[in-house]
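Give me the 3D structure for EOG090X0IZW.
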Amino acid sequence: MELKMISTFFGKQFVRGITTTACACGKRNFKKFPIYNKRGTRDFKARQAKNPNPEVPIHTYGTRPIGYKAGSAFVPIPELIPEIIVPDLTGFKLKPYVSYRVQDIVQPPLTPEELFGAVYVKKIADDFKAGKLDSDNQPLEPSPEERLTAEEAKKKVLAIRSDIV
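Predicted structure for EOG090X0IZW (165 residues):
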């Protein structure tokens, strides 16, 4: 703690201040002030690089060592190096986890108009514009969608709706 005297317009005032900076190039009580890898002054880091102080451990931030130090050289052990194995998820049917906090998505039931619009309208409009309809307004070249039965078309639209959501 230091005590300073300041002269002002109103006279002399005493100001008490507390300094929290370290003095003497980082010489500290190492048990009271832990200095991990990036902390400390440049001079302290330079001294630690040349002649490490055993009272100041090298902080590993929770990682496990992958080898040992033999003299000044580090010897890695291949069995200690973690190997991350990631499975191939192409064609995986399950969807990612969804939290219970997500609001429910409510879809109205599928109407016949929506089914007709999703499966048949585009092809019928294209055939009409190109003049590819016969006298009964049936397509001259029916597409695979036009050959579907009612149940197959409904399954297809429900699959499309579930992919969108």
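Residues 112-164 form one domain. Let me know if you want a second pass.
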